[in-house]
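pasting for the record
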Amino acid sequence: MKKNDKIYIAGYKGLVGSAIKRKLEEKQYSNLIYSDVGDFDLQRQQEVEHFFEKERPGCVFLAAAKVGGIWANKTYPAEFIYSNLSIQTNIIHAAYKYGVKKLLFLGSSCIYPRLAPQPMKEEHLLASPLEPTNEAYAIAKIAGLKMCRYYNEQYGTDFISVMPTNLYGPNDNYNLQTSHVLPALIRKFHEARINKNSFVELWGTGSPRREFLYVDDLADAVVFLVENYGYKEIGEIINIGTGEDITIKELAESIRQVVGFEGELRWDTSKPDGAPRKLLDVSRLRALGWKHRYSLADGIKKTYEAYLKGEIKK
């Protein structure tokens, strides 16, 4: 990937896409093009192919996706599988058709089996049943990484797939109906502090263990991989994470301290926990020479600062 290569970032307004854009700009890549769901319909093959035919990017970061937490995944499984299959199928095929030299596809650690051995290695994919609460999303993402693999094998493309752990940071989604756990906790504690509430109610038991990666670290990792490695070195997938996890209760306490909420935490155990543990084995990525920089404590502080700036703008 050269500094003047035309690079297309699909989903540049989102959490991941905006971080990739920041990282590429920081590294002085000068020929970036963007699109998001609102710019043209990524679910329409004709519109996607028209864009690729016109722009002819040399490299693609496929960060566009429909994402959400447990409630959203359980409530809208048809939307999750249709939207994600459509977006990724259209972009991957257009990338092949119009001669993209390199494509990076973003999966998710939630595609691993519900009861996968911990920490989860790349070879654990499809070894046992998926987590039911996000099965539709997981199946779509698995189809995407398999599509990249098969296009590489049949057409000689260089499409690589990465499996990031739970991500958070600036431009996250704070909608309590559709967000992931970390941004949801930030908003709940912030509003409870502002409203002087005596308690905050949280889903589940708080016992599941989760791994969290600051999104700027993720952006650094994917640019590092695209700059230095291809499908032949990486293989079908490679994990991106910290190799460290904490319980949801511990996460809640950390966020409560950063936000400054002093009330009680109440756990609604009638609500689902999701998978009991999701920790990635990141030994392959570390062997290639990359490791995360941000601690969870520092990442939460930076994320809350970004949240407050967003609140002020509103």
